[in-house]
Amino acid sequence: MERRNRDWSLTDGLTAGLGGPKMGVFFERCQRSVPWDQLGNSIRTLFDDSKPGKGGRPHWPLVTMVKCLMLQKWFNLSDPQLEEMLKDRLSFRRFVGLSLEDDTPDETTFVVFRRRLRETGHDRTLFATTTEILKGQGLIVSEGTLVDATIIGAPRGRTKADGTSTRDPEASYTKKSGQIRHGYKGHLATDRRGVIKDFRFTTAKTHESQHMDEMIEDETVAVFADSAYMDQRREERLTRRGVYYGIVKRRGRGQPELSFAQKFINRTCSVIRAVVEHPFAWMKNMGYGRARYRGLIRNALDFALMATAYNWKRSFSLVP
Question: Do 196 and 61 share a structural domain?
Answer without folding.
Answer: no
